[in-house]
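Hi again,

Forgot to attach this to my earlier email, sorry! This is the prediction with uracil bound. I've pasted everything inline since the attachment limit keeps bouncing my files.
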Amino acid sequence: MSAPPTPAAGRLELDAEALYRELLRGVRQMLTPATHLAGITSGGAWLAERLQRDLGREGAPGVLSSALHRDDFAQRGLAASAQTVLPFEVDGADVLVLDDVLYTGRTIRAVLNELFDYGRPASVRLAVLVDRGGRQLPVQADFAAARVALPAAQSLALARAADGTFHFQVNEA
Ligand SMILES: O=c1cc[nH]c(=O)[nH]1
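Structure tokens for the complex follow:
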């Protein structure tokens, strides 16, 4: 159900607002009334917040932080990043995890551990704005609004303007 691969352009042009609309369409098809959205901080949490609103859902979505379960915790320590907030009962829940960019799969592994610290969900699915390949773990998205191939030297992250609109930040290492 994911979009076909987008050919990697020499100069990457990713329209985050267009991809958001594609994500909204995909997520709408994945939802049941019992599904809870939970976004990975920070880009995924922004996506979940806007999706929750655009889907006309009550309350706030969950926020998941990978900080406590990162496999490089020893090197990085605890960054002053947002904390996990899950405003629903995790036991038995159907959880749809949102993230901006799926890359190695390590963040997803970490937030799954985080989620299971709060309970035993009935199911967990993953929807992302961009799948950039480069997986190091057996993780896949149930929905990706776009698939792109990027050189390892480039980092890609979602940014949010003051008016709430999205764009991508591409950085050369
Ligand atoms: O656990 C994690 C998550 C993201 N990136 C890493 O290198 N490790």
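The chain has one domain: 16-172. Residues 53 and 60 are 9 Å apart (CA to CA).

That should be everything now.

G.
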